[in-house]
Write a structure and sequence with these properties.
This protein has 189 residues and is an all-alpha fold. Helices cover 77% and strands 0% of the residues. The protein is built from 7 helices and no strands. Helix 1 packs antiparallel against helix 2 and helix 3 packs parallel to helix 5. The longest helix has 44 residues.
Amino acid sequence: MRERFAQAVGEIVRELEKREQQQDAILGRVREIVRHCSNAIKMLHAGEIEKARREIEGAEKKIAPFSQTEEFVYLLEQPYQEIAEARMLLAAVEGKELPSWKELGMPFEPWLLGCCDLIGELRRQMLEMLKKGEVKEAQRYFGIMEAIYDELVPIRFSNSLLPNFRRKQDVARGQVEQARSEIVRATAK
C-alpha cells in the first residue's frame, strides 16, 4: 500500500513542478508584455506611431506562445487587457475602426476591461489636442470615448461573471463626464 501511495504522490509532485515552470515562464512574460504596452501608449501620446506599433507587436509576440493555455488563462487577463487598450488606442490615433476581441484573438473579458481603460487614454489624447488648439481632433477623440461608453453602459452582469467591470465602467463614466465639460469649455471660447 505504501509504495503505491508514494508513487501517486510522486506523480503529483512531478506534475506540480511542471506546472510551476509553466507558470513562472508566463509570469515573466506578463511583466514584459505590460511594459511593452505601457511604452506603446506613451509613444502614441507622443506621436511616435511606428515605435508604438513595434512595442505592441513585441507584446503580441510574447503572449502568442501562451495563448492556448487553459490552466493559466487567469494569468493572461492583464496582458490581454493591456494589449487590447494599446491596439485600440493605436486604431483611434490612426483614425481606424477599433478592433474586436475576435480580431485581436483574445477572450472578451479582458477586451471589455481594456475598452474601459481606453476611455481614459482617449481623454488624454483629447486634452493634448485641446492644448494644441486642434478642437476638431479633440472632438473626434471625445466622440470615440462617448461611443465606447454608450455601448458599454447596457452591460450589467455580476462581478462573478465580469470581475472588475462595473468598477471600471464607473471610472469610464467619470472620464466621459469630465471630458464633456472640458470639451464644452474649450469650444465655448
